[in-house]
Prior knowledge:
Elements: H1 3-29, H2 35-40, H3 44-66, H4 71-99, H5 104-109, H6 113-132
Amino acid sequence: MDFEYVLRVLVWTGVGSVLLFILLYVDSLFTKYKDFEEVKAGNMAVTTRMILKLVAQGYILSVSISTSNVLLEAIVVSIISFIVLLILESVVRILLRGWAKLDLDLGTQQGKLGYGLFAGSLHIVGALIITACL
Length: 134
């Protein structure tokens, strides 16, 4: 292991961490509640959803890094994957609200852990599908 390799790991890890924070922040803008305020208040459903979202995005980023030699390419893949996940989640939420009368945002905001797990699991499944294509 030479210095260049160590430097590369540090740069990719730093950039990946910043990217994941930005993606979580952007995701919080699309919910009907204030994610970080709910986490601070101890809402475990929101916390669970956010953790699963972070795991999903981290997994996508790790796969895109392992399949790319260029940092910018891995970042672009992660951002596109994030947008795809947002769209898929929105479609599933609309279908669930209409078909099963299940409002994931409301249930998660109310602290119902099952709703948070369900919402977060959508991101995990989406990440697995997306990374299968990389």
